[in-house]
Design brief:
The complex is a heterotrimer.
Chain A: E1 14-16, H1 21-31, E2 35-38, H2 44-49, E3 57-60, E4 70-73, E5 77-81, H3 86-90, H4 93-98, H5 100-108, H6 112-115, H7 120-126, H8 134-139, E6 143-147, E7 152-156, H9 157-160, E8 161-163, E9 166-167, E10 174-181, E11 188-194, E12 203-210, E13 217-223, E14 230-231, H10 233-240, H11 245-259, H12 270-290
Parallel strand pairs in A: 1-3, 2-3
Antiparallel strand pairs in A: 4-5, 5-10, 6-7, 6-10, 8-9, 11-12, 12-13, 13-14
Chain B: E1 2-9, E2 12-19, H1 24-31, E3 50-53, E4 56-59, E5 72-74, H2 87-94, H3 104-117, H4 123-130, H5 140-158
Parallel strand pairs in B: 1-5
Antiparallel strand pairs in B: 1-2, 3-4, 3-5
Chain C: E1 2-8, E2 14-20, H1 22-25, E3 30-35, E4 42-43, E5 50-51, E6 57-58, E7 64-70, H2 73-80, E8 84-89, H3 96-99, E9 128-136, H4 139-145, E10 148-156, E11 168-173, E12 179-183, H5 189-199, E13 206-210, H6 226-235, E14 241-244, H7 247-252, E15 256-257, E16 259-268, E17 274-286, H8 292-301, E18 311-320, E19 326-327, H9 334-352, H10 356-363, H11 385-396, E20 410-421, E21 431-437, E22 443-446, H12 456-468, E23 475-476, E24 481-482, H13 497-524, E25 531-534, E26 537-540, E27 543-549, E28 555-558, E29 564-568, E30 570-575, E31 597-608, E32 614-624, H14 631-650, E33 681-687, H15 709-721, H16 732-742, H17 744-760
Parallel strand pairs in C: 1-14, 12-13, 15-19, 17-18, 22-23, 32-33
Antiparallel strand pairs in C: 1-7, 2-6, 2-8, 3-7, 4-5, 9-18, 10-16, 11-12, 11-14, 13-24, 16-17, 20-31, 21-22, 21-30, 25-26, 26-27, 28-29, 31-32
The chains are: A alpha+beta, B alpha+beta, C alpha+beta.
Chain lengths: 292, 159, 765
């Protein structure tokens, strides 16, 4: 995942560039496990260089019109096609204004040159624990749309990512888009990240809060602390309770730092991550609720 | 399989045969001999292989050559015409914005694109746009100075 | 062109039982696979401990065991995966303190056979590649007389040079026995020397060429891959072979900077006088220590920094472990010795109740009077450390307390560190220059000075232009260094290039001027000492109308009737240090360096007690470089060295797992400072105490600029919080841990204030 490659060259494969989704699916049907989808290439090509994957067939989906969608429909939400890059999201007005957590995550992801090429769907499909795309999507309750020749299915991003580089996708399937539900006007969302220079987060956090509507809703999603992004369900409950919001935030932050399973790895120890969970939670929630 | 692809590189049409698994970086450097392009990590971290691909900065070590058939590519070699350095390049020299020079082509190209998009950048905007490129000699201060001093020419160009 | 790829060890310490490369040979395009048995050579510059490919035994994860030579890189990369190696694992040792124990696994069994330089003391039968000792005065008596004693342990992890251009070599072994090398290295001469001594090829049959180099920082000095690639070329049927390391290999196969322990005990009088210093340095040199033995020596004799310490004892051990080999990196032992010493100064100041600046002033060496710890009396014009300190204090506004940050869990603080450095080199390291005039009085300057980003060449060209009164464009130094075409220089390392090669050039200029004036004196009928060179003309002093343009002399002067005198002008000059010596093997006494450049760094930082983040707001560097030859080049070195110092101080660490594998061999997990991370401001000031035997009084400066940054930051943290940061890098997690452990009161208060302050925010919900 992050070993660096001893190799300069890529293994042999056959390159395909289907023009329609159907052609792409037929290729997948034919080659199955031996094929990989190429969009931005930022993940796949790096993985191939490290020989973490060596597909015999690479299917470039950049010319498929359906996958280039980036649409917002009032009342329905946002549809992000599989070839939509971080840069395209960054300059999309609705993303910037309405989907703040996603926007902030996108802005903080990697660097501006990589963002010109990297896609959000690719980011989700790589399922690397330390990246910024998945937490906000999970906070919004986004779903991935998956197609094969004979069916379409939708899976919440939270379930789609099963673990490090492990996703709920069959070899004959392709992720066509991500659907992010509509966000009510009174809802707020945001994203924070703690990293030491490097693009990879030690901890990141996406929060979605809808506290003034009929149905109160809180989602706190933490990335980089465990094999896959996780929600702090107990902390969320605290925020849904009645009481002085300031005290609730502190309690929720403490709760989150205790309730979650947290790992140690090359980037940070478990202890430091738990501490950061506390700090980031207080920081983000006061920003969102206090407007400060 | 061998594909015959056609690229417009720095304004010239170039046709070249590539295999499925060849990287744009290697095709540009080894087959088309565009040596201004450098590489230091081969995995998208250092940014020294940055090219303008259809008007966007991308790191060519993570792009297959066969993917970009028909595209337009600009490298640092495409900035100056008739052997005369551009004002931005002159500013890099004047402000000492290079030491070993290995990252310089990437910084010049990315700075050029930055100024085209935003001829009046703040320090923060420069930092945000150039953080994908590494310089171990530590010429970052001088690069910011050079960009600011050359920005004048881009503002004029825009008018 | 053929391409080579290395097959590297996957175990840290093992006997090689069997190498099967039959499958690799079946890959189309593979020409040959070779192993260590094919090349029974021992190579190196100082320790002389290195093999070309592992012979019988591997000593680290990454040790090259075999090399595949193929028609294309792609074929070579396919083939390396198919080389099957069977190992019999041996116990491995990863920590130098463990490696020093008598029952530790022995990494080099035949150390006594290594051809090491006379400056070093390897101890066969142990893992000690070099033992350096230094004794001056009576350290025990010093401690008995001391009022305050400080004892501390320090640590610095392995770091990589991270020059952008990876190591790469092309070698062509010709049928006539000539070997041609093209390489990305700092210097041509040592490559030739190493190849000649180890492979037995006559010097003049080895031609080493180096074009522009994408950074070196000490990591492209000494031993490289040239000897290996040369023999690969021969093995492959005298065809040219190219080897390029990947970035991963730069972190796992090429040499990096050593890991470092410092154990220090320091005694001070209550008036602040530093009277006893007992320090032990342990260098984690990894599997091969060819250049690191010299780092161990330099860290030893630089233990006293800028201070006059009457009683001092130093032991510096360069120790083998089963990790990646190590080598020099910018500063070369001095960043290590100063990381220890400069923090000791602040700890002592605190204990005694003195200002950190004051304790330094009390103990500063006095050039002309003081002796360094090697017993060398500092020359009177060696520098003005007192003025360096004073200027530093003024520029950082030492006595002005920094503003309080708006967020109460953050603290602002200023810290400083002084430093001194000279080139670590053999006493007889020479340099030379040849300059020859062309018909139009333009000059070809034939020098071997390394050109990897320091700008030294520009400074040297300026010297020639200045002396002949010629415009810069008239002086040309080819961009390729070439053993066959450049005058000899030992190496460009240790900030010595401008000094040593500058002097050689000045002497070459003098030689050429003599030839020019001899002819001009005849033509102008005027004694030689009445002539001067101005604007490319020889003129009679005081009579500028009596003159000859240089171009009428430099190929010989021709009278109207055709009679000619003189001839093509070629100047030659050398530098040879006449006062440096080997150091006494027991006491470390002698004269190790050709100059000492004094300097200081100060920082203004903001410390986040909550997250351990340090934001450096301002860096000041003051350098006594004798004479500034080119201010822009100095500024570049200061900015660049400051950022490298900050990067190594804040982020960088090669991490190993328990099996000796590097777990972060890339720029994502081994983070280098990027443009978004730079401090707002770096300021530099020169103190110019001209050294009479330097070029125009100049001294070297390149490495100096990164020595003071890390200790200055650590001192700023200590000054504000009394938290000791004895270990690099100063990354958030390490600092967070230190704050929490050493000052739980401060940390808890910060956390409380953070939460309280957030509570004060108006809550709308």
């Amino acid at each position: 995942m992050s070993f660096g490659s001893p190799y300069f060259t890529l293994p042999d494969f056959t390159y395909h560039k289907p023009r329609t989704l159907r052609d792409a699916l037929e290729l997948l049907e034919k080659y199955g496990d031996d094929a990989k989808i190429l969009a931005g290439g930022v993940g796949l090509i790096a993985f191939m260089k490290e020989r973490l994957v060596s597909p015999s067939h690479v299917i470039d989906v950049k010319e498929i019109p359906e996958l280039k969608r980036l649409e917002y429909r009032k009342g329905e939400g946002l549809i992000i096609g599989a070839t939509i890059t971080f840069s395209e999201l960054e300059s999309h007005q609705v993303v910037r204004e309405k989907y703040r957590a996603l926007y902030q995550a996108v802005k903080l992801a990697s660097d501006s040159i990589i963002r010109n090429r990297a896609t959000l769907v690719g980011n989700v499909c790589e399922a690397i624990p330390w990246v910024d795309g998945p937490p906000p999507l999970i906070a919004y309750g986004a779903e991935v749309e998956i197609r094969s020749l004979d069916r379409v299915r939708r899976v919440p991003v939270a379930d789609f990512i099963k673990g490090p580089v492990e996703i709920d996708l069959e070899p004959r399937e392709i992720v066509t888009s991500i659907h992010v539900p509509e966000v009510p006007d009174e809802a707020k969302s945001g994203f924070v990240k703690f990293n030491i220079g490097s693009e990879f987060a030690l901890v990141n956090l996406a929060a979605y809060l809808s506290l003034n509507g009929k149905k109160k809703d809180v989602r706190l999603v933490y990335g980089a602390i465990s094999p896959k992004p996780v929600r702090a369900l107990e902390a969320e409950k605290i925020l849904l309770a009645e009481g002085d919001m300031r005290t609730l935030i502190t309690s929720a932050a403490l709760k989150a730092s205790e309730e979650l399973e947290v790992i140690s790895d090359v980037l940070a120890s478990e202890d430091f991550r738990r501490h950061l969970i506390k700090v980031l939670t207080v920081k983000l929630l006061t920003e969102l609720i206090g407007g400060g | 399989m061998v594909h015959k692809i056609t690229l417009t590189v720095n304004g010239y049409k170039r046709t070249v045969e590539v295999k499925d698994n060849e990287l744009l970086l290697d095709v540009l450097r080894d087959k088309l001999k565009i040596k201004g392009l450098k590489a230091a990590c081969w995995r998208g971290e250092c940014g020294l292989c940055t090219v303008l691909l259809n008007g966007k900065l991308v790191k060519s070590c993570l792009v297959l050559a066969v993917e970009v058939d028909g595209s337009e590519i600009v490298t640092v070699e495409g900035l100056s015409r008739d052997g005369e350095l551009t004002e931005l390049q002159k500013a890099f020299i004047e402000h000492g914005a290079l030491q070993c020079g290995f990252c310089t082509p990437a910084f010049v190209l990315a700075s050029h694109q930055l100024l085209l998009e935003n001829p009046n950048p703040t320090d923060e905007e420069i930092k945000e746009k150039l953080s994908g490129i590494l310089c171990r000699c530590g010429t970052y201060y001088e690069i910011i100075e050079a960009i600011k001093s050359a920005s004048n020419f881009y503002r004029k160009k825009q008018r | 062109m053929l391409y080579a790829k290395l097959v590297t060890s996957t175990v840290p310490h093992a006997k090689i039982k069997r190498i099967d490369f039959s499958k690799a040979l079946q890959i189309p395009g593979v020409v040959k696979v070779v192993t260590g048995k094919d090349f029974p050579y021992r190579v190196g510059m100082y320790a002389g401990d290195r093999d070309l490919l592992a012979i019988d035994k591997v000593r680290w994860v990454g040790h090259p065991v075999a090399a595949v030579i193929a028609e294309s890189l792609e074929s070579a990369e396919k083939a390396v995966d198919l080389v099957d190696i069977e190992y019999e694992e041996l116990p491995a040792v990863f920590d130098p303190l463990e490696a020093l124990k008598h029952d530790a696994p022995l990494i080099h069994e035949k150390m006594e056979e290594y051809r090491h330089s006379p400056a070093f003391k390897p101890i066969p039968g142990t893992n000690i590649a070099n033992k350096f000792t230094l004794v001056k005065g009576d350290v025990e008596r010093g401690f008995r007389e001391a009022d305050v004693i400080i004892e501390e342990q320090f640590y610095i992890p392995h770091v990589s040079h991270c020059y952008m251009e990876v190591q790469n070599v092309v070698a062509h072994y010709h049928l006539d026995g000539t070997v041609e090398i093209w390489t990305s290295w700092q210097n041509v001469a040592p490559i030739r020397q190493i190849m000649a001594l180890s492979l037995g090829i006559p010097h003049n049959k080895i031609i080493v060429r180096i074009p522009y180099v994408g950074g070196g920082f000490g990591g492209k000095a000494g031993l490289g891959w040239e000897a290996l690639v040369a023999v690969l070329s021969k093995e492959a049927g005298f065809r040219p072979v190219k080897l390029v390391l990947s970035r991963r290999e730069q972190f796992t196969v090429a040499a990096v900077r050593e890991g470092f322990y410092g154990f220090a005990k320091a005694g001070f009088k209550k008036d602040g006088k530093f009277i006893a210093y007992d320090v032990k340095f342990i260098l984690d040199a990894g599997a091969y220590a060819d250049y690191t033995v010299n780092v161990g020596r330099a860290v030893g004799y630089s233990a006293d920094g800028s201070y006059d310490i009457p009683n001092i004892r130093v032991e510096s051990l360069t120790v083998y472990t089963n990790k990646i080999p190590t080598t020099a990196l910018r500063g070369f032992g001095y960043p290590e010795s100063h990381w220890v010493l400069e923090q000791i100064m602040d700890r002592a100041a605190e204990k005694i109740g003195l200002d950190p600046a004051e304790i330094r002033r009390i103990n500063l060496v006095k050039p002309g009077i003081s002796e360094t710890c090697t017993g060398e009396r500092l020359r009177e014009d060696a520098g003005n450390p007192e003025k360096v300190l004073q200027t530093l204090l003024e520029e950082i506004e030492w006595n002005v307390p920094p503003e309080k940050p708006g967020e109460p869990w953050k603290i602002r603080s200023k810290g400083l560190a002084l430093f001194v450095k000279g080139p670590a080199q053999p006493p007889n390291a020479a340099a030379s220059a040849i300059l020859k005039f062309n018909e139009d009085a333009s000059v070809d300057l034939l020098i071997a000075t390394g050109n990897f980003g320091q700008g030294t060449i520009t400074g040297l060209i300026q010297i020639v232009a200045e002396e002949f009164g010629l415009p810069l464009e008239k002086i040309r130094v080819d961009y390729i260094r070439d053993t066959h075409k450049s005058a000899y220089t030992w190496q460009t390392v240790g900030s010595r290039g401008l000094f040593t090669d500058g002097i050689a050039i000045l002497r070459a200029i003098e030689d050429a001027k003599k030839q020019i004036f001899r002819v001009a004196s005849e033509v102008l009928r005027c004694p030689e000492d009445h002539l001067e060179l101005v604007n490319g003309e020889v003129r009679v002093k005081g009579k500028p109308w009596e003159k000859i343009p240089l171009q009428d002399i430099v190929m010989g002067y021709t009278y109207p009737n055709g009679n000619s005198i003189g001839g093509p002008v070629i100047g030659r000059g050398v530098f040879m240090s006449t006062h440096t010596t080997y150091l006494d093997p027991e006491t470390g006494q002698g004269n190790p360096t050709i100059f000492h450049t004094f300097g200081g760094a100060a920082v203004d930082v903001e410390i986040d007690l909550l997250t351990g983040e340090i934001k450096v707001l301002k860096i000041v560097q003051v350098l006594d470089l004798g004479r500034v030859i080119n201010p822009l080049l100095v500024k570049q070195q200061v900015n660049g060295g400051s950022l490298m110092g900050l990067s190594i101080g804040s982020y960088e660490q090669i991490k190993f797992d328990e099996r000796g594998w590097v777990v972060n061999p890339n720029f994502t997990n081994y983070y280098l400072i990027r443009i978004k991370d730079i401090p707002k401001e770096v300021v530099w000031k020169a103190v110019e105490t001209a050294q009479s035997d330097g070029p125009y009084g100049a001294r070297g400066v390149g490495e100096l600029t990164m020595i003071g940054i890390a200790p200055a930051i650590a001192n700023a943290i200590y000054r504000a919080t009394k938290v000791k940061i004895n270990q690099l890098p100063m990354n958030p997690e390490n600092l967070w841990k230190a704050f929490k452990e050493q000052r739980p009161d401060l940390f808890d208060e910060a956390l409380k204030m953070f939460i309280e302050s957030k509570k004060l925010v108006e809550v709308r919900a």
